[in-house]
Amino acid sequence: QIELRIMAHLSKDQRLIEAFKNNEDIHKITAAEIFNCNLSEVSSEQRRYAKVINFGLIYGMSAYGLAKNLNIDRASAQSYIERYFARYPSVRNYMEEAKQSAKNKGYVETYFGRRLWVPEINGSNGIARAGAERAAING
Questions:
Q1: Where residue 54 falls among pLDDT bands split at 50, 70, 90?
Q2: By CB count within 10 A, which of 4, 51, 93, 134 is most buried?
Q3: What angle do CA 2, 8, 12 make, to 5 degrees?
Q4: How far is CA 28 from each of CA 9, 61, 91, 129, 136, rounded to the nearest angstrom?
């Protein structure tokens, strides 16, 4: 779960930070939010879905990718994504700010100060641009 802990730190999302401070099951918490149920009612399948969502979204997975990965329709995947970001709004804000910063500068700076150049982030090729946006988030 190191990636999620790092995202909690970078995004300063209070819900994520508190969950980790209290040693809570972040996948179960996310599942309860996404599936609108109590923690005690979360099934192992719902937790598995939430785990895919937790990790997939921080790596830039789209509704299309999530739908394919979970074998669900795109509308359901989009709904899960919206619920995720409603629960963890600072994660979305961090991701958007990271992309915008990379678009403005043409590079993303890693936590240790290394520059990763992403010229494709302002390009017209959608696939290359999406890859550059993911790189900006993952810095």
A1: very high
A2: 4
A3: 155
A4: 20, 20, 18, 33, 28
